[in-house]
Backbone:
Protein backbone atom coordinates (compact mmCIF):
# COMPACT_ATOMS: atom_id res chain seq x y z
CA UNK A 1 0.00 0.00 0.00
CA UNK A 2 1.51 3.37 -0.99
CA UNK A 3 0.31 4.90 2.28
CA UNK A 4 2.66 2.57 4.12
CA UNK A 5 5.71 3.48 2.03
CA UNK A 6 6.80 5.97 4.63
CA UNK A 7 9.50 6.05 7.29
CA UNK A 8 6.98 6.90 10.01
CA UNK A 9 5.17 3.62 9.38
CA UNK A 10 8.38 1.71 10.11
CA UNK A 11 8.42 3.06 13.67
CA UNK A 12 4.74 3.65 14.49
CA UNK A 13 3.43 0.03 14.78
CA UNK A 14 6.38 -1.29 16.85
CA UNK A 15 5.96 1.61 19.30
CA UNK A 16 2.28 0.77 19.78
CA UNK A 17 2.90 -2.93 20.28
CA UNK A 18 5.79 -2.34 22.65
CA UNK A 19 3.31 -0.34 24.70
CA UNK A 20 0.79 -3.18 24.60
CA UNK A 21 3.43 -5.76 25.55
CA UNK A 22 4.62 -3.60 28.44
CA UNK A 23 1.11 -3.46 29.84
CA UNK A 24 0.97 -7.27 29.63
CA UNK A 25 3.84 -7.40 32.14
CA UNK A 26 1.90 -5.20 34.58
CA UNK A 27 -1.12 -7.46 34.06
CA UNK A 28 1.02 -10.53 34.80
CA UNK A 29 2.34 -8.94 38.00
CA UNK A 30 -1.22 -8.11 39.08
CA UNK A 31 -2.51 -11.65 38.46
CA UNK A 32 0.55 -13.12 40.18
CA UNK A 33 -0.04 -10.93 43.20
CA UNK A 34 -3.72 -11.91 43.28
CA UNK A 35 -2.82 -15.60 43.15
CA UNK A 36 -0.28 -15.28 45.95
CA UNK A 37 -2.37 -12.86 47.97
CA UNK A 38 0.57 -10.50 48.42
CA UNK A 39 -0.18 -7.02 47.17
CA UNK A 40 2.21 -4.58 48.77
CA UNK A 41 4.52 -1.73 47.92
CA UNK A 42 7.10 -4.17 46.52
CA UNK A 43 4.59 -5.42 43.95
CA UNK A 44 3.85 -1.83 42.95
CA UNK A 45 7.55 -0.99 42.70
CA UNK A 46 8.21 -3.93 40.38
CA UNK A 47 5.22 -3.04 38.20
CA UNK A 48 5.72 0.70 37.96
CA UNK A 49 8.78 0.87 35.63
CA UNK A 50 7.11 -1.53 33.20
CA UNK A 51 3.99 0.62 33.12
CA UNK A 52 6.04 3.79 32.64
CA UNK A 53 7.99 2.16 29.79
CA UNK A 54 4.82 0.91 28.11
CA UNK A 55 3.14 4.29 28.52
CA UNK A 56 6.16 6.08 27.02
CA UNK A 57 6.28 3.78 23.99
CA UNK A 58 2.54 4.13 23.49
CA UNK A 59 2.79 7.93 23.73
CA UNK A 60 5.43 7.98 20.99
CA UNK A 61 3.43 5.53 18.88
CA UNK A 62 0.23 7.56 19.07
CA UNK A 63 2.11 10.79 18.31
CA UNK A 64 3.81 9.18 15.29
CA UNK A 65 0.45 7.98 13.98
CA UNK A 66 -1.02 11.45 14.36
CA UNK A 67 1.98 13.05 12.65
CA UNK A 68 1.83 10.53 9.79
CA UNK A 69 -1.89 11.17 9.21
CA UNK A 70 -1.21 14.92 9.20
CA UNK A 71 1.39 14.98 6.45
CA UNK A 72 0.57 11.81 4.50
CA UNK A 73 -3.22 11.74 4.10
CA UNK A 74 -3.33 15.30 2.78
CA UNK A 75 -6.33 16.37 4.86
CA UNK A 76 -4.40 18.63 7.17
CA UNK A 77 -5.89 16.97 10.25
CA UNK A 78 -3.93 15.57 13.18
CA UNK A 79 -6.69 13.57 14.95
CA UNK A 80 -9.92 12.22 13.48
CA UNK A 81 -11.38 10.14 16.35
CA UNK A 82 -11.02 7.24 13.97
CA UNK A 83 -11.75 3.77 15.50
CA UNK A 84 -8.13 2.67 15.08
CA UNK A 85 -6.87 5.86 16.71
CA UNK A 86 -9.31 5.29 19.55
CA UNK A 87 -8.14 1.67 19.89
CA UNK A 88 -4.68 2.83 20.99
CA UNK A 89 -5.92 5.91 22.85
CA UNK A 90 -8.03 3.91 25.33
CA UNK A 91 -5.16 1.90 26.87
CA UNK A 92 -3.10 5.10 26.97
CA UNK A 93 -5.77 6.83 29.06
CA UNK A 94 -6.19 3.95 31.51
CA UNK A 95 -2.41 3.40 31.50
CA UNK A 96 -1.98 7.01 32.62
CA UNK A 97 -4.35 6.33 35.51
CA UNK A 98 -2.50 3.10 36.35
CA UNK A 99 0.88 4.85 36.36
CA UNK A 100 -0.31 7.36 38.95
CA UNK A 101 -2.23 4.81 41.01
CA UNK A 102 0.88 2.62 41.27
CA UNK A 103 2.73 5.60 42.74
CA UNK A 104 0.14 5.81 45.53
CA UNK A 105 0.26 2.05 46.15
CA UNK A 106 4.07 2.08 46.25
CA UNK A 107 4.44 5.08 48.55
CA UNK A 108 1.30 4.87 50.71
CA UNK A 109 0.22 1.19 50.35
CA UNK A 110 -3.18 2.49 49.30
CA UNK A 111 -5.55 1.99 46.35
CA UNK A 112 -4.55 -1.69 46.04
CA UNK A 113 -7.93 -2.81 44.75
CA UNK A 114 -8.19 0.09 42.31
CA UNK A 115 -4.64 -0.36 41.04
CA UNK A 116 -5.13 -4.07 40.33
CA UNK A 117 -8.37 -3.32 38.48
CA UNK A 118 -6.59 -0.68 36.37
CA UNK A 119 -3.83 -3.17 35.49
CA UNK A 120 -6.45 -5.64 34.29
CA UNK A 121 -8.36 -2.96 32.37
CA UNK A 122 -5.26 -1.55 30.66
CA UNK A 123 -4.16 -4.90 29.26
CA UNK A 124 -7.73 -5.84 28.34
CA UNK A 125 -8.10 -2.62 26.36
CA UNK A 126 -4.78 -3.34 24.65
CA UNK A 127 -6.18 -6.70 23.52
CA UNK A 128 -9.45 -5.06 22.51
CA UNK A 129 -7.59 -2.51 20.42
CA UNK A 130 -5.59 -5.26 18.71
CA UNK A 131 -8.82 -7.15 18.01
CA UNK A 132 -10.54 -4.11 16.51
CA UNK A 133 -7.60 -3.36 14.22
CA UNK A 134 -6.83 -6.92 13.09
CA UNK A 135 -10.32 -8.41 12.82
CA UNK A 136 -11.71 -6.04 10.20
CA UNK A 137 -14.92 -5.41 12.18
CA UNK A 138 -14.41 -1.65 11.85
CA UNK A 139 -13.73 0.47 8.80
CA UNK A 140 -10.85 2.91 9.15
CA UNK A 141 -8.42 4.89 7.05
CA UNK A 142 -5.77 3.35 9.31
CA UNK A 143 -6.72 -0.28 8.61
CA UNK A 144 -4.39 -1.94 6.12
CA UNK A 145 -4.58 -5.63 7.00
CA UNK A 146 -7.47 -7.62 8.39
CA UNK A 147 -7.64 -11.29 9.29
CA UNK A 148 -11.04 -12.35 10.70
CA UNK A 149 -9.71 -15.74 11.84
CA UNK A 150 -6.86 -14.13 13.75
CA UNK A 151 -9.29 -11.54 15.08
CA UNK A 152 -11.47 -14.29 16.57
CA UNK A 153 -8.39 -15.83 18.16
CA UNK A 154 -7.50 -12.48 19.77
CA UNK A 155 -11.11 -12.09 20.92
CA UNK A 156 -10.94 -15.52 22.54
CA UNK A 157 -7.75 -14.56 24.39
CA UNK A 158 -9.40 -11.30 25.49
CA UNK A 159 -12.47 -13.06 26.89
CA UNK A 160 -10.43 -15.81 28.56
CA UNK A 161 -7.79 -13.63 30.23
CA UNK A 162 -10.12 -10.80 31.20
CA UNK A 163 -12.77 -13.18 32.52
CA UNK A 164 -10.24 -15.21 34.54
CA UNK A 165 -8.59 -12.12 36.03
CA UNK A 166 -11.92 -10.51 36.97
CA UNK A 167 -13.14 -13.71 38.65
CA UNK A 168 -9.86 -13.92 40.55
CA UNK A 169 -10.16 -10.25 41.47
CA UNK A 170 -13.65 -10.84 42.85
CA UNK A 171 -12.49 -13.81 44.93
CA UNK A 172 -9.62 -11.80 46.42
CA UNK A 173 -11.58 -8.59 46.94
CA UNK A 174 -11.59 -8.85 50.72
CA UNK A 175 -7.77 -8.97 50.81
CA UNK A 176 -7.42 -5.81 48.73
CA UNK A 177 -8.76 -3.33 51.24
CA UNK A 178 -6.37 -0.45 51.86
CA UNK A 179 -5.90 0.87 55.39
CA UNK A 180 -6.22 4.47 56.40
CA UNK A 181 -8.52 7.38 55.78
CA UNK A 182 -7.72 10.50 53.83
CA UNK A 183 -8.85 14.05 54.12
CA UNK A 184 -10.67 15.55 51.16
CA UNK A 185 -7.75 17.85 50.39
CA UNK A 186 -4.85 15.42 50.04
CA UNK A 187 -2.67 14.09 47.25
CA UNK A 188 -4.29 10.65 47.40
CA UNK A 189 -7.79 12.04 46.89
CA UNK A 190 -6.67 14.34 44.07
CA UNK A 191 -4.91 11.47 42.29
CA UNK A 192 -7.98 9.29 42.68
CA UNK A 193 -10.11 12.10 41.27
CA UNK A 194 -7.91 12.32 38.21
CA UNK A 195 -8.06 8.54 37.83
CA UNK A 196 -11.84 8.77 37.78
CA UNK A 197 -11.77 11.45 35.07
CA UNK A 198 -9.31 9.41 32.98
CA UNK A 199 -11.54 6.34 33.27
CA UNK A 200 -14.59 8.43 32.37
CA UNK A 201 -12.76 9.66 29.27
CA UNK A 202 -11.93 6.05 28.39
CA UNK A 203 -15.59 5.11 28.74
CA UNK A 204 -16.56 7.95 26.39
CA UNK A 205 -14.09 6.72 23.76
CA UNK A 206 -15.17 3.10 24.25
CA UNK A 207 -18.87 3.89 23.80
CA UNK A 208 -18.25 6.19 20.86
CA UNK A 209 -16.16 3.52 19.14
CA UNK A 210 -18.24 0.40 19.80
CA UNK A 211 -21.80 1.73 19.89
CA UNK A 212 -22.12 2.13 16.08
CA UNK A 213 -20.83 -1.44 15.64
CA UNK A 214 -23.18 -2.90 18.27
CA UNK A 215 -26.11 -0.87 16.92
CA UNK A 216 -25.56 -2.26 13.43
CA UNK A 217 -25.02 -5.87 14.55
CA UNK A 218 -28.29 -5.79 16.51
CA UNK A 219 -30.13 -4.83 13.33
CA UNK A 220 -31.01 -1.36 14.57
CA UNK A 221 -29.53 0.41 11.58
CA UNK A 222 -26.38 2.44 11.09
CA UNK A 223 -25.45 5.35 13.32
CA UNK A 224 -22.41 7.57 13.26
CA UNK A 225 -20.67 9.10 16.26
CA UNK A 226 -18.24 11.73 15.08
CA UNK A 227 -15.77 14.29 16.32
CA UNK A 228 -18.34 16.75 17.79
CA UNK A 229 -19.43 14.16 20.38
CA UNK A 230 -15.89 13.35 21.46
CA UNK A 231 -14.78 16.99 21.47
CA UNK A 232 -17.72 18.08 23.62
CA UNK A 233 -17.30 15.28 26.15
CA UNK A 234 -13.54 15.77 26.46
CA UNK A 235 -14.00 19.52 26.91
CA UNK A 236 -16.26 18.81 29.90
CA UNK A 237 -13.83 16.30 31.41
CA UNK A 238 -10.56 18.13 30.86
CA UNK A 239 -11.42 21.15 33.03
CA UNK A 240 -11.65 19.27 36.38
CA UNK A 241 -8.87 16.91 35.25
CA UNK A 242 -6.41 19.76 34.69
CA UNK A 243 -7.52 21.47 37.91
CA UNK A 244 -6.67 18.33 39.91
CA UNK A 245 -3.48 17.80 37.91
CA UNK A 246 -2.17 21.17 39.03
CA UNK A 247 -3.32 20.77 42.64
CA UNK A 248 -1.88 17.27 43.18
CA UNK A 249 1.87 18.05 43.28
CA UNK A 250 1.28 21.05 45.58
CA UNK A 251 -0.46 18.98 48.27
CA UNK A 252 0.85 16.50 50.82
CA UNK A 253 0.05 12.86 51.31
CA UNK A 254 -2.90 11.93 53.55
CA UNK A 255 -3.75 15.41 54.83
CA UNK A 256 -3.05 19.00 53.89
CA UNK A 257 -4.90 21.96 55.39
CA UNK A 258 -6.16 24.02 52.45
CA UNK A 259 -5.09 27.19 54.24
CA UNK A 260 -1.42 26.17 53.90
CA UNK A 261 -1.53 26.31 50.10
CA UNK A 262 -4.27 28.91 49.70
CA UNK A 263 -1.85 31.72 48.87
CA UNK A 264 0.07 29.59 46.36
CA UNK A 265 -3.13 28.49 44.65
CA UNK A 266 -4.47 32.04 44.42
CA UNK A 267 -1.21 33.20 42.83
CA UNK A 268 -1.27 30.29 40.39
CA UNK A 269 -4.92 30.89 39.50
CA UNK A 270 -4.42 34.62 38.97
CA UNK A 271 -1.35 34.15 36.81
CA UNK A 272 -3.02 31.39 34.78
CA UNK A 273 -6.13 33.42 34.01
CA UNK A 274 -4.10 36.52 33.18
CA UNK A 275 -1.69 34.67 30.91
CA UNK A 276 -4.40 32.69 29.12
CA UNK A 277 -6.64 35.69 28.47
CA UNK A 278 -3.79 37.97 27.38
CA UNK A 279 -2.37 35.42 24.93
CA UNK A 280 -5.85 34.78 23.54
CA UNK A 281 -6.37 38.48 22.81
CA UNK A 282 -3.21 38.62 20.70
CA UNK A 283 -5.27 36.91 17.97
CA UNK A 284 -7.62 38.81 15.69
CA UNK A 285 -10.77 36.92 16.72
CA UNK A 286 -10.36 35.63 20.30
CA UNK A 287 -12.73 32.87 21.38
CA UNK A 288 -13.92 31.63 24.75
CA UNK A 289 -12.81 28.07 24.06
CA UNK A 290 -9.30 29.21 23.14
CA UNK A 291 -9.14 31.28 26.33
CA UNK A 292 -10.23 28.26 28.38
CA UNK A 293 -7.60 26.00 26.80
CA UNK A 294 -4.85 28.57 27.32
CA UNK A 295 -5.85 29.16 30.95
CA UNK A 296 -5.75 25.40 31.61
CA UNK A 297 -2.34 25.11 29.93
CA UNK A 298 -0.99 28.03 31.93
CA UNK A 299 -2.38 26.46 35.13
CA UNK A 300 -0.34 23.30 34.52
CA UNK A 301 2.83 25.23 33.67
CA UNK A 302 2.57 27.59 36.64
CA UNK A 303 1.61 25.01 39.28
CA UNK A 304 4.39 22.69 38.09
CA UNK A 305 6.89 25.54 38.31
CA UNK A 306 5.67 26.53 41.78
CA UNK A 307 6.00 22.94 42.98
CA UNK A 308 9.64 22.88 41.87
CA UNK A 309 10.26 26.23 43.57
CA UNK A 310 8.70 24.97 46.81
CA UNK A 311 10.74 21.78 46.81
CA UNK A 312 14.02 23.53 46.01
CA UNK A 313 13.35 26.23 48.62
CA UNK A 314 12.97 23.55 51.30
CA UNK A 315 16.48 22.19 50.64
CA UNK A 316 19.76 23.29 52.19
CA UNK A 317 20.06 27.02 51.44
CA UNK A 318 23.85 26.82 51.49
CA UNK A 319 23.65 25.06 48.13
CA UNK A 320 23.21 26.96 44.90
CA UNK A 321 19.90 26.76 43.04
CA UNK A 322 21.51 24.57 40.38
CA UNK A 323 22.88 22.15 42.98
CA UNK A 324 19.48 21.90 44.62
CA UNK A 325 17.83 21.20 41.26
CA UNK A 326 20.33 18.40 40.70
CA UNK A 327 19.19 16.80 43.96
CA UNK A 328 15.70 16.23 42.55
CA UNK A 329 15.29 12.54 41.76
CA UNK A 330 14.92 11.30 38.16
CA UNK A 331 11.38 10.17 38.92
CA UNK A 332 10.55 13.68 40.10
CA UNK A 333 11.98 15.16 36.91
CA UNK A 334 9.90 12.60 35.03
CA UNK A 335 6.76 13.92 36.69
CA UNK A 336 7.76 17.51 35.87
CA UNK A 337 8.45 16.73 32.21
CA UNK A 338 5.28 14.66 31.92
CA UNK A 339 3.11 17.50 33.15
CA UNK A 340 4.96 20.14 31.11
CA UNK A 341 4.68 17.97 28.00
CA UNK A 342 0.93 17.62 28.50
CA UNK A 343 0.66 21.42 28.82
CA UNK A 344 2.62 21.88 25.57
CA UNK A 345 0.32 19.44 23.77
CA UNK A 346 -2.74 21.19 25.19
CA UNK A 347 -1.47 24.56 23.92
CA UNK A 348 -1.01 23.10 20.45
CA UNK A 349 -4.47 21.52 20.44
CA UNK A 350 -6.10 24.73 21.67
CA UNK A 351 -4.49 27.09 19.17
CA UNK A 352 -4.70 24.91 16.07
CA UNK A 353 -8.32 23.97 16.81
CA UNK A 354 -9.46 27.56 17.28
CA UNK A 355 -7.22 29.61 15.00
CA UNK A 356 -6.30 27.50 11.98
CA UNK A 357 -7.23 29.08 8.64
CA UNK A 358 -8.30 26.99 5.65
CA UNK A 359 -9.22 27.87 2.09
CA UNK A 360 -10.20 25.71 -0.90
CA UNK A 361 -9.52 27.60 -4.12
CA UNK A 362 -9.52 27.07 -7.87
CA UNK A 363 -6.14 28.19 -9.18
CA UNK A 364 -4.50 28.47 -12.57
CA UNK A 365 -0.72 28.47 -12.90
CA UNK A 366 0.39 32.08 -12.61
CA UNK A 367 -2.31 33.00 -10.08
CA UNK A 368 -1.86 33.66 -6.37
CA UNK A 369 -4.00 33.71 -3.25
CA UNK A 370 -3.44 35.61 -0.01
CA UNK A 371 -4.29 34.07 3.35
CA UNK A 372 -3.55 35.62 6.77
CA UNK A 373 -0.77 37.79 5.38
CA UNK A 374 0.87 35.03 3.32
CA UNK A 375 0.80 35.10 -0.48
CA UNK A 376 0.76 31.68 -2.16
CA UNK A 377 1.89 32.01 -5.79
CA UNK A 378 1.10 29.05 -8.07
CA UNK A 379 3.91 29.03 -10.67
CA UNK A 380 3.33 25.91 -12.74
CA UNK A 381 2.73 22.16 -12.76
CA UNK A 382 5.50 19.71 -13.63
CA UNK A 383 5.18 16.03 -14.52
CA UNK A 384 7.71 13.82 -12.77
CA UNK A 385 8.32 10.09 -12.64
CA UNK A 386 9.29 8.26 -9.46
CA UNK A 387 10.46 4.67 -9.00
CA UNK A 388 6.88 3.34 -8.92
CA UNK A 389 4.66 6.34 -9.59
CA UNK A 390 4.02 9.34 -11.79
CA UNK A 391 3.29 12.73 -10.25
CA UNK A 392 1.88 16.14 -11.07
CA UNK A 393 3.97 18.51 -8.97
CA UNK A 394 2.66 21.97 -8.12
CA UNK A 395 5.36 24.63 -7.92
CA UNK A 396 4.50 27.25 -5.29
CA UNK A 397 6.36 30.21 -3.86
CA UNK A 398 5.17 31.65 -0.56
CA UNK A 399 5.73 35.31 0.30
CA UNK A 400 5.43 37.19 3.59
CA UNK A 401 5.40 41.01 3.53
CA UNK A 402 6.60 40.90 -0.08
CA UNK A 403 9.66 38.77 0.70
CA UNK A 404 9.96 35.19 -0.48
CA UNK A 405 9.62 32.89 2.50
CA UNK A 406 9.71 29.35 1.13
CA UNK A 407 9.35 27.22 -2.00
CA UNK A 408 6.85 24.33 -1.74
CA UNK A 409 6.14 21.44 -4.11
CA UNK A 410 2.95 19.51 -3.25
CA UNK A 411 2.31 16.46 -5.42
CA UNK A 412 -0.59 14.49 -6.83
CA UNK A 413 0.80 10.99 -7.36
CA UNK A 414 -0.50 7.93 -9.19
CA UNK A 415 1.08 4.64 -8.14
CA UNK A 416 1.33 2.52 -11.27
CA UNK A 417 0.88 -1.02 -9.93
CA UNK A 418 -1.98 -0.30 -7.53
CA UNK A 419 -3.46 2.44 -9.79
CA UNK A 420 -3.92 4.36 -6.55
CA UNK A 421 -3.87 8.19 -6.41
CA UNK A 422 -2.07 9.80 -3.49
CA UNK A 423 -1.61 13.34 -2.21
CA UNK A 424 1.78 14.49 -0.94
CA UNK A 425 1.33 17.82 0.79
CA UNK A 426 3.85 20.64 0.71
CA UNK A 427 4.47 21.70 4.31
CA UNK A 428 6.62 24.46 5.78
CA UNK A 429 6.93 23.93 9.53
CA UNK A 430 8.10 26.40 12.14
CA UNK A 431 7.80 26.42 15.90
CA UNK A 432 4.86 28.84 15.68
CA UNK A 433 2.91 27.72 12.60
CA UNK A 434 2.74 25.39 9.62
CA UNK A 435 1.98 26.46 6.04
CA UNK A 436 0.26 23.53 4.32
CA UNK A 437 -0.61 23.14 0.61
CA UNK A 438 -2.37 20.10 -0.87
CA UNK A 439 -3.11 19.44 -4.55
CA UNK A 440 -6.65 18.40 -5.35
CA UNK A 441 -8.04 17.25 -8.69
CA UNK A 442 -7.31 18.89 -12.07
CA UNK A 443 -10.19 21.05 -13.31
CA UNK A 444 -11.10 22.57 -16.67
CA UNK A 445 -8.71 24.72 -18.71
CA UNK A 446 -5.61 23.67 -16.77
CA UNK A 447 -6.91 24.83 -13.37
CA UNK A 448 -6.42 22.84 -10.16
CA UNK A 449 -8.32 22.46 -6.90
CA UNK A 450 -5.91 23.67 -4.22
CA UNK A 451 -6.30 23.49 -0.46
CA UNK A 452 -4.27 25.91 1.67
CA UNK A 453 -3.96 25.81 5.47
CA UNK A 454 -2.25 27.92 8.09
CA UNK A 455 -1.98 25.92 11.30
CA UNK A 456 -0.67 27.76 14.37
CA UNK A 457 1.40 25.76 16.88
CA UNK A 458 0.40 22.39 15.42
CA UNK A 459 3.91 20.98 15.95
CA UNK A 460 3.50 21.59 19.70
CA UNK A 461 1.04 18.68 19.79
CA UNK A 462 3.74 16.16 18.90
CA UNK A 463 6.52 18.02 20.72
CA UNK A 464 4.50 17.71 23.93
CA UNK A 465 4.13 13.96 23.41
CA UNK A 466 7.90 13.64 22.96
CA UNK A 467 8.49 15.63 26.17
CA UNK A 468 6.09 13.33 28.02
CA UNK A 469 7.93 10.28 26.71
CA UNK A 470 11.27 11.78 27.79
CA UNK A 471 9.71 12.25 31.23
CA UNK A 472 8.90 8.55 31.25
CA UNK A 473 12.50 7.70 30.38
CA UNK A 474 13.70 9.93 33.23
CA UNK A 475 11.42 8.14 35.66
CA UNK A 476 12.66 4.74 34.53
CA UNK A 477 16.26 5.84 35.09
CA UNK A 478 15.59 6.33 38.82
CA UNK A 479 17.99 4.10 40.75
CA UNK A 480 15.10 2.67 42.77
CA UNK A 481 14.13 0.75 39.64
CA UNK A 482 17.68 -0.40 38.77
CA UNK A 483 18.48 -3.26 41.10
CA UNK A 484 21.97 -4.74 40.70
CA UNK A 485 21.11 -7.76 42.81
CA UNK A 486 18.82 -8.98 45.51
CA UNK A 487 20.81 -9.32 48.71
CA UNK A 488 18.26 -11.27 50.62
CA UNK A 489 15.23 -13.04 49.27
CA UNK A 490 12.35 -13.11 51.71
CA UNK A 491 9.29 -13.88 49.64
CA UNK A 492 8.29 -14.72 46.11
CA UNK A 493 5.34 -13.21 44.32
CA UNK A 494 4.54 -15.38 41.34
CA UNK A 495 8.20 -16.25 40.87
CA UNK A 496 9.39 -12.64 41.26
CA UNK A 497 11.94 -12.35 44.04
CA UNK A 498 11.49 -9.57 46.56
CA UNK A 499 13.35 -8.60 49.66
CA UNK A 500 16.15 -6.25 50.54
CA UNK A 501 17.33 -4.78 47.28
CA UNK A 502 20.80 -3.37 46.72
CA UNK A 503 20.48 -0.33 44.47
CA UNK A 504 22.86 0.14 41.56
Residues:
Amino acid sequence: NPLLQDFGMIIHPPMLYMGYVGFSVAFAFAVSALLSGQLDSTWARWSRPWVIAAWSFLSVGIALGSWWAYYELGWGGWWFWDPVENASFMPWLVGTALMHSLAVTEKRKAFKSWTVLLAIATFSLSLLGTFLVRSGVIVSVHSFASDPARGLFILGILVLLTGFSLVLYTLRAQQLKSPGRYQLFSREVLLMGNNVFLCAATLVVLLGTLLPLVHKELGLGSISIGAPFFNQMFTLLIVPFVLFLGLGPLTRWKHQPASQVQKTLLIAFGLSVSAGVLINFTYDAPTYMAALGLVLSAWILITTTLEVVQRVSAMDTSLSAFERLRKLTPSHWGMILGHLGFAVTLIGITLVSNYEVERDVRMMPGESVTLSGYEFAFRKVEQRTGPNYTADVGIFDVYESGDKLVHLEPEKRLYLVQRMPMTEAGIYSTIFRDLFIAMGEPLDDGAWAIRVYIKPFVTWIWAGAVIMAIGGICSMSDKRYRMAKVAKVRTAVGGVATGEEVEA
Summary: The chain has twelve helices and twelve strands. The longest strand covers residues 374-385. Residues 361 and 381 are 16 Å apart (CA to CA). Residues 484-504 have pLDDT under 50 and may be disordered.
